[in-house]
């Protein structure tokens, strides 16, 4: 990676203010201004507000406390509620929290509530007797919000998405401004549709070349966080563009944008192209959601806070070691780390393409350590159960390799969760994981250790029981 | 809130993320339900690894902490957007987090809820103080004084954030200043 230049300088131009970064363009539009600059405080209108079972009940509590028990949300069509965090658990408070969301959706007439159960008057109770692997959800359940938002047609180029979850930045893959917020700010948006934001300065990451075999988008973002540091993008937008983007699938871009927050970023955003358009158009059409949008494109003369070029072809399988996402090492140098467990799942690493990369390495072999697979959404689980390689489905290939695959998609052990959560580390184990965060205790026990890696590296390591470069498999 | 806050400090290092501030297993508690707000406080900083932090922020069986001030290193509050984090600290009776730097969403949530004053010191005070030290913080002068030695350290002014936290969060502040209508 070359440092092209430090802080951007203004070139001579009378109309310099017309040049804005992708993030600035969206925030200017959403605040009704012709132009904004980094550092401006602006009132931004939300196109979509998303919340889930962990932060939704508190957000609703703030909304009712501040706007009144009978208050109505500013626009029911712009509120998306996706229970996904603590669903398949016998914890009664977690089950109750899904019921709070259902009550609110009913009372407010919200069309985009992706309930766990089908009965609008029912109560959600997880049946622990049935075990964690067999399907226990209804027709509308959508799974992990960040993967489900695009799937259900709620991510559109040029728009503003707020979500009560730090990985909301994942939707930046679709050329939109998306960022995580707290319950109080979300309660304010529920009542007003607006939020006061500071326009972040943009860090520019120009991608060139394409990834070598065995290297995945996850390696790109782990490499990059190692380069700028775990707080290297704090208060900044991270813009990804350049000729290398075309070789990255939408899944790849989602993985990269997802982890902008792990460098402290406010948002991550990709350029718009034919792939973005095809995906967004198809998902909006299929789901009958709003299908018109206005993408933002580059000017070429905009001012960046910092500029970096990333040569995709030079990136190697990368691991972020315990205890933070900035502890970067090459997988090939970490063979001395013995592992107890492997995990593939979450918004970051639980997509169809992630499981395909996982299965490619495990096919016909058997894992040496406890290995867990949690698809991010029901649609991904169906994909894996219906896609065949010769006579076997991806799902069966993984199960035969010894992976414990659950049909119940959700955040699961990515963030620990209640003690009966599938895959949660309840003792101090070492786990290699395709998830996004590895601070102490993230996946359960506070003295456990998590090593973040791509699904390919997780697969190769599951086969050997120690951290392994997938190019050696 | 008074400008002078005195008490014992609890000292932590870099990258104290929201899972260490309030572990995910306790996010089944809803902060706007009173009993659950109280309970959240009893788990504040529960996720700190025991080996690194043998002295606990909350003594066993207690709802509140004996430490009213937390001194931290870089990137305090990184990780998730859970508002439960500043709420747990506030509910545990912590008034100020004085850190070398903050993660963005945590800082914003401190202000939005008005639960704690997020003061940035720039200086590495987590190497200067140790858990249990008595200090006096003056928010007007943005200083922290070590009671044992009398030594005074400056931190950055809270600026426009101060009156919002003083008022108890953005909604109270907006009502107090007439930005939104008073409660009926």
Keywords:
heterodimer, A: 473 residues, alpha/beta, Aconitase, domain 3, 2 domains, 5-stranded mixed sheet, 13 helices, 18% strand, B: 184 residues, Aconitase, domain 4, 6 helices, 24% helix, globular
Tally of strands of chain B: 7
State the low-pLDDT regions of chain A, or none.
1-16
Morphology of chain B: globular
Q: How far is it from the N-terminal to the C-terminal residue of chain A, by CA? A: 27 Å
* Assembly state: heterodimer
Distance between the termini of chain B: 25 Å
Helix content of chain B: 10-25%
CATH fold node name of chain B: Aconitase, domain 4
Give the count of helical stretches of chain A: 13
Largest sheet of chain A: 5 strands, mixed
Task: List the helices and strands of chain B in order.
Answer: EHHEHEHEEEEHH
Q: Using the CA coordinates, give the radius of gyration of chain A.
A: 21 Å
Mean pLDDT figure of chain A? 95
Write the CATH homologous superfamily of the largest domain in chain A. Answer: Aconitase, domain 3
Report the top-level CATH class of chain B: Alpha Beta
What is the tally of helical segments of chain B?
Answer: 6
> In the CATH hierarchy, what is the class of the largest domain in chain A?
Alpha Beta
Number of domains of chain A: 2
Helix content of chain A: 25-40%
In what range is the share of β-strand residues of chain B?
A: 15-25%
